[in-house]
Amino acid sequence: MKGKVSLIGAGPGDPELLTVKALRLLQTAEAVLYDDLVAPEILQLIPPTAATHNVGKRCGKKKISQQEINFLMIALADSGVNVLRLKSGDPLIFGRAGEEIEALRQAEVSYEIVPGVTSAFGAAAAAEIPLTHRRASSAVVFLTAHQAEGSEAADWRKLAGSGATLVLYMPGHDYAEVGAKLLAAGLRSSTPCAIVSRASTAQQKTHFTTIHELHSAPHLPAPTLLIVGEVVRFAEPASLIQEFVAPGLSAEFSNEGSFA
Predict the structure, then answer these.
(1) Dihedral angle, C-alpha 161, 162, 168, 174, nearest 10 °
(2) Pick the catalytic residue: 35, 87, 90, 205?
(3) Residue of 2, 4, 57, 181 with catalytic role
(4) Would residue 35 show up in a list of annotated catalytic residues for this protein?
(5) What is the pLDDT at residue 156?
(6) In whole angstroms, what separates CA 218 from the centre of its chain?
(7) Domains and CATH numbers, the chain
(8) pLDDT digits (tens, 9 = 90+) for 205-238
């Protein structure tokens, strides 16, 4: 009999943010294919008897191609092994789950999807930013600063014009370019932003700034997300809300909440 593949969201990093189902599957795993951004504390939950494979693609460097990942998943399942495909955040949001589902369907391999807390939610909670607020934004848009070769880029002007909160996955370190694109899309230079690094982990750090000052933001450790929009004004500490009126604001604090 063929094995089954479970596409599992590991959440933003904190093991306590795993779903009950994800934790149960991890603790009974036979084989795990995990991404680089999955937190070490979560990998420690995998039993030592399980075969583990790091199939991560990070910062543009690939240990393995997507086709090879698909082949490995299918080969293990065909041999009767139940496979966990472990992804950071939620597998359906910038996790290439669609490509892997397509490959599994073509190979007639049984699979299931176990959703996880997406990194955007983890980052917003870490920075105490409401992604929607009835006085600031009634919609949220997830997008990435990087597109696959040959894919159509999102229309940032149309998204910015909607008034939605923008959450950029994989913003990279060229914040000057990102800031220029946001300005070209029609956002004001005083629009507040938050860069959240390693959300929900002990290494979590948040940097508040504006589009005007985004070019001078520090290069925080990956994974990072960039939250852009008026909702950032509602972040703690409360004094920051008033200070955001000044376009030159740039404040940074650690996960303990003290200014660095």
Answers:
(1) 0
(2) 35
(3) 57
(4) yes
(5) 87
(6) 19
(7) 4-114 (3.40.1010.10), 119-254 (3.30.950.10)
(8) 999 999 999 999 999 998 999 999 999 999 865 4
